[in-house]
Design goal:
about 140 residues; mainly alpha; three-stranded antiparallel beta sheet; about 5% strand
Length: about 140
């Protein structure tokens, strides 16, 4: 028994591509090029910022602030890590370091190292908690 032969399909006519969906107000995204966000000398800065560095706003956004800087200052009323800010603003880490470094030099934000907890908890504290829970 021979296997069935496949027949090649030929399109009858080329259809034009479907038109793009109409833009909805408020939902249209016009992404900026990263060099526009970073500024003309965006790659020339050197900062000691990593993903877990905490950023805290020191001032309200000035009138000359970029949209990214204004959004960052609004978010940083409480300490946030650079990784969280990068996720909230949809900017890559490299762009966040550039924006944050500009803001550090302008005195708009402060950067601090994260609070490092001890690797192993104190045994006496754990025993006191355990005994307290057993008494409940």
């Amino acid at each position: 028994m021979t296997p069935p032969q496949r027949q090649r399909r030929h399109p009858k006519e080329q259809l034009p591509p479907p038109p793009p969906p109409p833009a909805q107000p408020g939902k249209q995204k016009n992404p900026e090029r990263l060099f526009v966000v970073a500024g003309p000398d965006g790659g020339e800065r050197d900062a000691d910022i990593d993903l877990v560095t905490l950023i805290v706003a020191r001032a309200d956004p000035p009138p000359s602030a970029t949209p990214e800087q204004s959004a960052l200052l609004r978010l940083c009323t409480a300490p946030l890590s650079v990784a969280e800010l990068s996720a909230y603003l949809n900017l890559p880490f490299s762009m966040m370091t550039v924006v944050i470094t500009d803001m550090l030099t302008a005195g708009l934000v402060t950067a601090r190292a994260p609070i490092v907890r001890q690797a192993v908890a104190d045994r006496s504290i754990l025993e006191a908690v355990m005994h307290g829970l057993q008494r409940l």
